[in-house]
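Go through this one:
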Amino acid sequence: MSDAQPSTPSTPWSDLEASGSGLDIEHFLTFLLSRLGNEAQRLVTSRYLEPFALSVSEWRTLSGLAKHSPTPFSQLVAVSSADKALVSRSLQELARRGLAKVDPDPDNGKRKVCRITPAGRRLYRRVMPGAQRRQAEILLHLDRAERDQLYLLLEKLRPAIGAIPLPAGDAPKTAGAPSAPAPAQ
């Protein structure tokens, strides 16, 4: 019988070098987060939204409006973590259904101010308890310390991602510039 201590499980990230040369694509952080997010949207989020005929992007837009209404369109884009075109389409659908309203900004005619309507607020209040319950079901697979650690680690990574300089030639595309294929996640 051995007195050896059990070792901490090794992960593909355990002995990570700055070059990342030992990583396979299925171990990329972006790949793992994308896969988890896609599975959660498909198996969890979309199921609690189906009875209300809401898409995930419409729900995110409605939630942003519920928390920040009235808000400039640009702020709604920022809080939804989606691209401008997707938020615009979602907002148009919510407005068509009478759940949101978009008006010209009285201080700047070029900008739009977005508001949740009373019907939108009622729908938000109906959807939110189920959304909260489903999110809790996922998170409760982790113990309290794991939930705290995961949250803190994700929050730590967010500003770090924005601080990573782009290599030469990878500058963001400007309007009208030809687009390149998206990099692998």
Q: What stands out?
A: Strands lie at 71-72, 100-105, 108-116. Residues 174-185 have pLDDT under 50 and may be disordered. The CA atoms of residues 9 and 25 lie 20 Å apart. Residues 26-158 form a domain with the Arc Repressor Mutant, subunit A fold (CATH 1.10.10.10).
